[in-house]
Specification:
Elements: H1 4-43, H2 46-56, H3 59-71, H4 74-97, E1 103-107, E2 114-118
Antiparallel strand pairs: 1-2
Helix pairs in contact: 1-4, 2-4, 3-4
The structure holds zinc ion.
């Protein structure tokens, strides 16, 4: 009996298996990246978007924004949304560029309160404003 086809078949299965593991690792990495982005998007407050707009709007963007706000038609609502979203995305991009926090959850050692993702927990309640 010729064993070469068996060896080829087994080798091919091993390669498939390795390829699957690589795909799985890539999937997990992109899933983690997606989750991180979603957490960042969910953490952005209205005041932060408004600050971003106030600080970085160009004259042309401000004119477009105010004209749209003053007219208030359906197209204008879309323009307002696009402008606001643009500044929210700028915040998201900036936060994504920051290194990911070391721990997915941190805690207060004194009361045990969960404080969200971070590089370290805190020792005392006064550090988290309690
Ligand atoms: Zn505490």
């Amino acid at each position: 009996m010729n064993t070469i086809p068996n060896v080829i078949s087994r080798t091919s299965k091993s390669v498939d298996w390795l390829f699957d593991r690589e795909l799985e690792a890539a999937d997990n990495a992109s899933e983690a990246e997606y989750d991180r982005r979603e957490r960042i998007v969910g953490s952005i407050r209205t005041a932060e978007v408004l600050d971003e707009m106030a600080e970085s709007m160009t004259v042309a963007q401000e004119e477009a924004f105010m004209e749209a706000l003053n007219r208030g038609g359906n197209k204008d609502v879309h323009t307002l949304y696009c402008l606001i979203d643009q500044f929210k995305e700028a915040i998201v991009k900036r936060r994504l560029a920051e290194p990911a926090p070391r721990f997915s959850m941190t805690y207060c050692s004194q009361c045990g309160k969960a404080l969200g993702p971070g590089n370290s927990g805190v020792s005392h309640c006064y550090s988290h404003g309690a």
